[in-house]
Amino acid sequence: MVIHVENIQKSFGKQEVLKGIDLDFFEGQIYSILGPNGSGKTTFMKSILGLVKPNNGKIMVGGSDGMKDHEYRSNIGYVPQIARFPENLKVNEVIDLVTSIRKQPSFPQEFVELFQIESFLNQRLKNLSGGTRQKVNLVLALMFKSDILILDEPTTGLDPINTIRLKELLLQLKSEGKTIIVTTHILHLAEELSDDIIFLLEGHVKYHGSTDRLLKLSHTKNLEEAIAAILQGEIDSEEETPVVNIYNRKKNA
Q1: Which of 167, 221, 233, 238 has its CA 20 to 30 A from that of 123?
Q2: CA–CA distance from 23 to each of 183, 202, 206, 210 (Å)?
Q3: Helix 211-218 to helix 223-231 angle, to the nearest 10 degrees?
Q4: Which of 157, 16, 148, 11 has its CA nearest to residue 82?
Q5: CA atoms of 40 and 231, how far apart (whole Å)
Q6: DSSP string of the chain?
Q7: Which of 8, 82, 11 is nearest to 48 (CA)?
Q8: Domains parsed from the chain with CATH numbers
Q9: pTM over 0.85
């Protein structure tokens, strides 16, 4: 197990965002976190990253206590939903800045070539399109070859070719034993990539398990229909308990 999350709760004022999340994440697996806006996806990911401090619960990352020791973050690559960098910096200056902050060996050229941003390295961020900015964000997250990748809507702004490149890269990194956690609204991408689907709804884990298992339990033909079935409460009450608790299958294996 790489990441263990136990009874994570987080409120912002009177608003409860996470209401007792229990999850485990393992090596060589891709997890897609799905859910409607406001379900707690980004707050949950930021809690693992140490960017949000939960009100209660336990987070263990690679044996480190995520609530106390933040050194583990040096082994995480992160693509935020909205990345903000000084607009006046050039792309190569941002790469150098992030490398100097993390003080780790980096391999940006490999990913610069993959996402074909060589011609943008001397351009300032303020002059880049949204899609090119996203490719820069991906390079910054991937270039340290971290064991854990947390990607919040990583395909935002990407054209179909670069979306395919990213998908192929993530599958390759999975085969190398990386732990990859992705949030996305593109359901077919989640279906193609993921070993496990995690569906959050109103701060709770409503489902955690494979796509095939979800399709069987919801009696649907694709992930889009299965998600609609969850939202509409169409999964039988007798089947709902094993769906919600399916994450235990690896802990008990």
Answers
A1: 167
A2: 15, 16, 12, 14
A3: 60
A4: 157
A5: 15
A6: --EEEEEEEEEETTEEEEEEEEEEE-TTEEEEEE--TTSSHHHHHHHHHTSS--SEEEEEETTEETTT--GGGGGEEEE-SS----TTSBHHHHHHHHHHHHTS---HHHHHHHTT-GGGTTSBGGGS-HHHHHHHHHHHHHTT--SEEEEESTTTT--HHHHHHHHHHHHHHHHTT-EEEEE-S-HHHHHHH-SEEEEEETTEEEEEE-HHHHHHHHT-SSHHHHHHHHHTT-S-HHHHHHHHTTTHHHH--
A7: 8
A8: 3-251 (3.40.50.300)
A9: yes
Phi/psi for 30 (5° steps) reads -115, 125
Average pLDDT over residues 181-194: 92
Banded pLDDT at 235 (limits 50, 70, 90): low
Give the amino acid at 171: L
